[in-house]
Structures are given as C-alpha cells and as structure tokens.
Design goal:
The protein is mainly beta. Helices cover 5% and strands 29% of the residues.
Length: 141
C-alpha cells in the first residue's frame, strides 16, 4: 500500500514526490539496462544497504559483511538488475522513517515490495534512457 506516514518496516510506499538520485546495476544481468543519463554503479557482492535506524549508516550503502542489519543488493531474484535510489529519507535522514526506497524491477505477478516502486523489465528498459539526476517519481493514490 501507500502511506503518508512512512515508518521503517511497515512495507508501505511513501506518498511523495521523490527525486531519482543515482542507481546500481547487475553487470552480469544488465543487458538493455545501461542506457541512461543517471550515474550508475555496478553491484558487487559486498554491497549492502543499512536498515537499522540506530546505526550511523542508516539508509546508506554499506560494505558487507556489516555489523548491523542490512539489505544485500546482489540479489538472486534479479529485482535489482537495475535499482535506482530515490531521495526518500536521504537528506535529512530521520531515524525510523524508512530506508532503501528504490525504483527497481518487479517480481513476476507484481507482488508487493517492502515500500519500493517496481516495474517490469521492459518498462524499465524504456524509461532508463529518459531518466536523469533530478527526475521526479511521484507516488499518488
């Protein structure tokens, strides 16, 4: 669902306008996903994203293994073959207001995300060439 009061772990997508900041891609799965004006970095086996509100690196990329709970960016399910970072709770970061809100590929059947925005691979391939730093993704009801 969508919420106007995003909280860490609630599984909801923020009701907000969010700028696209940059992105990540899986080099081994990225055919058709590299044509973009965005700054894109490869996802290595050591890339994680901290999701612990009390940690100093909350809602930031971290090198794994990492002591606090984190999301592993090199996923087996290919959802992050292209993964764009949205500016939700980036600056300023507010503890507990949600982390790792990304724009990424959808699961088969478009099952729910944990608060991200997800599209088909075909849609992502069509959108990427038109996206740049500052592109705004607006989540509405």
């Amino acid at each position: 669902g969508i919420t106007a009061n995003k909280r860490e772990g609630d599984g909801a997508t923020p009701l907000a306008s969010m700028r696209v900041l940059s992105g990540y891609f899986r080099g081994d799965h990225a055919a058709g996903l590299r044509r973009t004006r965005l700054s894109m970095a490869p996802i290595g086996a050591d890339l994680g994203w901290c999701e612990v509100p009390q940690d100093r690196n909350y809602n930031r990329p971290v090198k794994i293994p990492y002591g606090a709970s984190h999301e592993r960016m090199k996923r087996d399910d290919r959802l992050y073959d292209a993964c764009l970072v949205l500016d939700w709770n980036i600056a300023p970061r507010r503890r507990g207001r949600g982390s790792a809100i990304f724009f990424h590929l959808a699961r088969p059947g478009f099952t729910p995300t944990q608060g991200c925005v997800a599209v088909s691979r075909r849609t992502m391939e069509r959108l990427l060439p038109h996206l740049g730093a500052g592109t705004v993704l607006k989540v509405v009801r």
